[in-house]
Every structure is written in structure tokens, then in C-alpha cells.
Amino acid sequence: MAYEIITADCFLWLKTCPPASFHAVVTDPPFGVREFTQVELEKLKNKNGGVWRIPPAIGGSQRSPLPRFTVLTTQDVEKMRTFFLEWGRLILPVLVPGGHVLIAATPLWTHVVFSALAQAGLEKRGEIARLVRTLRGGDRPKGAEEEFPNVSAMPRSCWEPWGVFRRPLDGTLAENLRRWGTGGLRRLPDGNPFPDVIDSTRTPHQERKIAPHPSLKPQKFLRQLVWAALPLGKGRILDPFAGAGSTIAAAEALGYDSVGVEINEEYATVARRAVPLLAQLPATNGETARNHLPEIPLAMRLPLFQAAS
């Protein structure tokens, strides 16, 4: 299907976007707003401080860089709230009535992000928990690891929250579905309702190699979200924080039209190259076998989302 990667500041781009242009938004925004600024990305690239940190290795496994959301100041948090309030107000009119917004967050700051989106006029419809065992969090006190060997500074991260929001309906749900094709979530291929807990894995190495980005989400997971976002199996998907294009690739794999907006030219270039390659991959491509952490047995074991046998 047709897709487009646009290099632009999504705030400016959304102001020029015609009303009711999209049927759903699936996006993974900058949680703390600061981490994907050019200054912080340069620090990450040069391994020179900033909001990104390289956690210590565990059992010989080197962990990926992650942003330190705990270092956000009161001023940073207020900027975050204002950021998502303004973004929510801009995203609302470009959605058709009943269009869903599925948006990634972090457990530390969901209360700020989600309340801002609700204040902007979007209806909160729930949350989706992506269960994923990672090596993030759970560190001993920095500089005093041997003194306090039985203490963790924070819980080990085992899940990722995704907010489920919706532009208010035009009439009843049935009327909205007939008029706009939106308002609900698409059921699974076996007829069961789409669940709010999804078993996942870390992003496979093959996908990270195709689309290098510090917060790349796996195709298997994103295809499930994109599937759910269009209840009648048709429509146009928007990702205003497109990164390396993983959401757009998921839409392409499922046959949906989509638009990705990315402010960083380097990532937009990666996305244009990566989208067709990611879209061609089976949802699980053998790389998850390298994940030696125990997985919580709750996966959607359905042909649509699984690798070909």
C-alpha cells in the first residue's frame, strides 16, 4: 500500500494537515521530550553524558542505552505536560471521529502524559500492557553496589504501557462505524476481543540492524497494534514520531496506507530505507530465540502475527 515518510516537526506539520485525514494514530513519542533533541542525540552518539546512559553489563550482556527519566526536573515535567497537551490538541482534528490514538509511554510518567491528552479532548479508553522482559532497571545503588547488594534502586522493567485514546464519536458507535469506519478496536482473527495485555519480546537483532534506533519496537508487537487500530480493516495510519519507521512498516505489512513524520533527518533517511525491508520480515524472524530471558506465556499465537512455518 502507499506510505510516505515526511521530514518535519510534527507540531508544525499537524497545523497544516487537513481535518479528518487519518483513521488512527500509532506512535512511540519522546517520553521525556528531551531525549530525542539534537543535543542529546549527539551526546548519545559520542557516549558523552546527557540524559542517555549506558547501564552496566549483567552476566556479560551489554545493555542498550536508555534515557534517565528520573533526572527530569520539575521544569522538565511541566514542559512534558505542555508538550503533550499541545500535541493532543493538534492531533484531535486530523483524526476522523472515533479514531484511536495508541501511544507508548513509560510507567514513570504515564500520569503526566495521559492526563494531558485527556485534557486536550481525547477520551481515555484504557491501556495496553506490553509485557517484555528486559535488562533495564533493577540496578543496585550506584557506587555502593557491594555495600547494598540486596537493594534495587527501582523495579526491573517487565512491561511497557500504551495509552488507548479516542476522538469522541459522531453519534453511537454503530453510527460512527458506518459513517467513518472507526470507533472500536478490531477483533483478533479468531474472533476474540483484542486484549489489553500483550506478550512481547525485545526487538530482534535483525530488525535493529535494518533500522538502528534506540527505541525501536518489534514488528510482531506493532503489527498487532496497527491491526487493532482499524476496526473494519481499512483506513489510514499516522505516526507523527516515526523514528526509523517501524510503525509505518507494520502498516505496510498489513496493507494499510500510512504517513510517518520524523523531525530528525538522519532517522527519516533510515526509515525510508528500512520500511520496505521491515515490512517483508515475518512477524517473528528467528531472532527471538536468542532472547534467553524467560517469557511470560501469554502470547497471541495466531497465524497473522506469527512467522511462517
Q: What attributes characterize this protein structure?
A:
single chain; 309 residues; alpha/beta; Rossmann fold; eight-stranded mixed beta sheet; two-stranded antiparallel sheet; 9 helices; 10 strands; globular
What is the CATH topology assignment? Answer: Rossmann fold
User: Widest sheet: strand order?
Assistant: 1-10-9-2-5-7-6-8
Describe the biggest sheet?
8 strands, mixed
Mean pLDDT: 86
Query: Structural class, from helix and strand content?
Result: alpha/beta
CATH-derived architecture: 3-Layer(aba) Sandwich
Beta-strand residue fraction: 15-25%
Query: Could you name the CATH class?
Result: Alpha Beta
Number of helices: 9
Q: What radius of gyration results from the CA coordinates? A: 19 Å
CATH homologous superfamily classification = Vaccinia Virus protein VP39
**N-to-C span:** 25 Å
Which consecutive residue ranges, at least 5 long each, have pLDDT under 50? 285-302
Helical coverage, percent range = 25-40%
The total tally of domains equals 1
Gross geometry? globular
Give a verbal description of the structure:
With 309 residues, this protein is α/β, with parallel strands linked by helices. It has a single domain, classed as Vaccinia Virus protein VP39 (Rossmann fold, 3-Layer(aba) Sandwich), CATH 3.40.50. The protein is built from 9 helices and 10 strands. The strands form 2 sheets. It has an 8-stranded mixed sheet with strand order 1-10-9-2-5-7-6-8. The protein starts with a strand and ends in a 29-residue tail after the last helix.
